Amino acid sequence: MDPEQWLAQYDKRLTEIAKRAKEAGERVREAGGTASSPRGEVEVRVGASGVLEDLTLTPDARTLESQDLARLILDTTRKARQAVSARIAGISTAYLGEGPALDVIKQHLPAPVAARTEPDDDDYFANPEITR
After folding, report:
1. Chain-wide mean pLDDT for the chain?
2. For the segment 67-95, what is each residue's pLDDT rounded down to a tens digit?
3. In this predicted structure, what is the pLDDT of residue 103?
4. Contact predicate 13/6, CB 8 Å
5. Over residues 5-22, mean pLDDT
6. Pfam families from the entry (predicted)?
7. With contact defined as beta carbons under 8 Å apart, do 76 and 26 qualify?
8. Residue 127 confidence (pLDDT) above 70
9. How far apart are CA 37 and CA 77, in angstroms?
10. What Rg do the C-alpha atoms of the chain give, in angstroms?
11. Does the domain at residues 28-126 carry the CATH identifier 3.20.20.80?
12. Among candidates 81, 87, 77, which has minimal Cα distance to 29?
């Protein structure tokens, strides 16, 4: 292969890579995650960076105690962040494939949401907390 052909193929390859990178970047910027609370009192949307962009509370949210509502908002936001993390990981995997670069991206994504269990009344009586 002569140098001009090689250079033309190399230029074509770089153009394709740049196009794919631009598309992946746009998909990441547009990525967002939404989540709703189990009973639907809270719905959130987060952007690609995990920042809360929208919060919707239904009238049922007014029946909750303030600390319960706050916890529900935080838990729902964590779920939305996990959803956007999964999207970004998918986009990155499609663009980069498995490997060290993808591992670095995954290290900076939020950790999976731990399942939160509601305290049981029986648990309270078995393990009462003394507060002052």
Report:
1. 81
2. 999 999 999 999 999 888 888 888 888 87
3. 80
4. no
5. 86
6. YbaB_DNA_bd (PF02575)
7. no
8. no
9. 9
10. 23
11. no
12. 87
- Tell me, rounded to whole angstroms, the distance of Cα 31 from its chain centroid: 9
In angstroms, the CA 45 to CA 26 distance is: 18
Domain ranges of the chain: 28-126
Contact, 60 vs 41, CB < 8 A?
yes
Q: How far apart are the first and last CA of the chain?
A: 83
Question: Whose structure tokens read 């956007």?
Answer: 84
- Integer Cα distance of 22 and 84 in angstroms: 19
Q: Where are the alpha helices (DSSP H) in 1-132?
A: 3-30, 66-96, 100-107, 121-126
3-state secondary structure of 128: coil
Query: For residue 80, what is the DSSP state?
Result: H
- Which DSSP symbol is given to 131? -
User: Nearest 5°: CA angle at 108, between 103 and 110?
Assistant: 115
